[in-house]
């Protein structure tokens, strides 16, 4: 039973780290060409035009800060906090993609996630993907040890070994 718990904890930790790395990578790719990201958000026609100049930078900052903070938090034993924080951002992405699924742009445009420039004509899979990632991270947070200090976290990991 202890071996199964250890495997579950390690899988949950890997999922949190992967989500944080995805956020940092996406922000890094977007910051290299913010004008393209701005144009993509404008083409989505979800956000009001006055926000089109600020929104890309806010999203990039959120991805970078949450991704970096989550990576830092995991080194300090705050796995649950990292899982829940990254989950919250993926919930926002799921809500945004759901808005696009309900009212798609007039012509297919890229999603703006920075990993693909291919135009999207069906937003439902993207909404589901982000929603499932958010749910998976929430489930991971319950599998991870509750830790308020690195010392407590290390004791929990040693007990699981």
Report on this model:
With 161 residues, the chain is an all-alpha fold. 73% of the residues lie in helices and 0% in strands. It contains six helices and no strands. Helix 1 crosses helix 4, helix 1 packs across helix 5 (124-143) and helix 3 packs antiparallel against helix 4. The chain is elongated, with a radius of gyration of 18 Å.
Number of strands: 0
What is the beta-strand fraction? under 5%
Element string (H = helix, E = strand): HHHHHH
Helix content: over 70%
The end-to-end distance, rounded to whole angstroms, is: 11 Å
The geometry reads as elongated
Main beta sheet strand tally, sense and closure: none
Cα-atom Rg, whole angstroms? Answer: 18 Å
Low-pLDDT stretches are none
Q: How many helices in DSSP terms?
A: 6
Chain-averaged pLDDT: 90
**Global structural class:** mainly alpha
What's the helix and strand layout?
Elements: H1 2-31, H2 34-44, H3 55-75, H4 79-102, H5 124-143, H6 150-160
Helix pairs in contact: 1-3, 1-4, 1-5, 3-4, 4-5
Features:
single chain, 161 residues, mainly alpha, 6 helices, elongated
What's the short story on this structure?
This protein is mainly α. The protein has helices spanning 2-31, 34-44, 55-75, 79-102, 124-143, 150-160.
